[in-house]
Input
Amino acid sequence: MKPVLVSEHENEAVAFIREIESDYLTLVRTVISEIKNLGLTPTETIVRAVLIEGPEILRGKYNAYAERDISRGSTPAAKAQMRNLHHEVFAGFLQRVTPLFESTIGGKSVRNPMFQDLITFDKALRPLLPDAGKEKIREQFREYISDPRVLKIRNACAEAATGLQTFWQAMIKAGYASRFLIDYSESEHPGWMIEKQVLNVLSGFLTVTGADGQYVIEPRQMDFTNVELETIDDHGTE
Output
């Protein structure tokens, strides 16, 4: 069976793209700025190496820079003082930059090479997420199924989800959902932050009866006591 695209998972893909643009590109810009503050000249190769290996990889380059900065005519004491100063400068660099690499995006470490595969740099060494990178992300989120048995289960799940969506929208339009104090109105991606809450509410209206593998899922008796419902049509809309 040829793989069938069953979902784009567009909301998740868009959310991940926004994380890359806001969090990862900010990280890259910060790394570039910190390299400049060390007195080194950042290049795409150097920046990419730091993004994967971490800031410690620059120690050799900075030590070489520090030695050039120390005057040959200086006294041993002055040279030692300069070396200590440069040691403190690099230690401060590590202290500021290292914590940045402890973060994650989409559950993956920011040091994961996959993030570098998504971005590019312009001539001024500004990091960008090009259209090609966005398309790679969208492709990662696309769901394909090549097994007809799995596809049948997936389609049944989609039908169930559609039914639950209709049910939930009907409760919202009728003013019944508000009693559960779930605030979904201000979320850019309605559902992902309240997924467990919504599913818990919906499951509370279902009952499972039967035994020995013969089960029936049915609506549970609903209590509308002291609830003033609004008028809705058969499709759950006003």
The beta strands are 4-7, 104-105, 108-109, 120-121, 127-128, 143-145, 206-211, 214-219. The mean pLDDT is 84. Residues 81 and 170 are 74 Å apart (CA to CA). The radius of gyration is 28 Å.
